[in-house]
Amino acid sequence: MTRIRMDPTNQTTTAIASRLLPWFRVVFGAIGLLVPRVLGRWYGLSANGGSLDVALRYACIRALGLGIGQLTASGATRREWDRIALLIDVLDTLMLLEAAVRGRIPKRSALVMLSGTVSGVVVGLLVRRDGAPARASD
């Protein structure tokens, strides 16, 4: 597979995405903790204090922790954080698929949520395939 070169410093699309993903996790997590109703509306979930709200807040806390871990780690430690994030994204994707198939969450909500988890899986797998450091500064 051919890599797409973004600029003369040899930054690949994968490297750029792997640097942006932890920031997305931090922003997603912060929004979910600070203004959960906004995130709930985006996902098409009601903010009534039910179990879906609790699950969404857990996901936000986890995303915030993963994002901060990825952003503050370097070298081999960063690669470990990336592996953990990939595993969590895979498990979240499977859980969302199962919930959507069984009708536990609306299909539209599942698709919006899957856009995040699947993106994390794709970026994580591409980083592992390339064997490249997650950040250009590593």
Measured by DSSP, the beta-strand proportion falls in: under 5%
Total count of strands:
0
Tertiary shape: globular
For this structure, the quaternary state is single chain
Q: Please report the distance between the alpha carbons of the first and last residues.
A: 24 Å
Helix content: over 70%
Low-pLDDT stretches: 134-138
What sequence of helices (H) and strands (E) makes up the elements? HHHHH
Class computed from helices, strands and strand pairing:
mainly alpha
Radius of gyration over C-alpha positions, nearest whole angstrom: 16 Å
Largest sheet: none
Mean pLDDT figure:
83
Helix tally equals 5
Describe it.
By secondary structure, this protein is mainly alpha-helical. Helices cover 75% and strands 0% of the residues. It has helices at 13-34, 36-43, 51-72, 75-101, 107-130. The two termini are 24 Å apart.
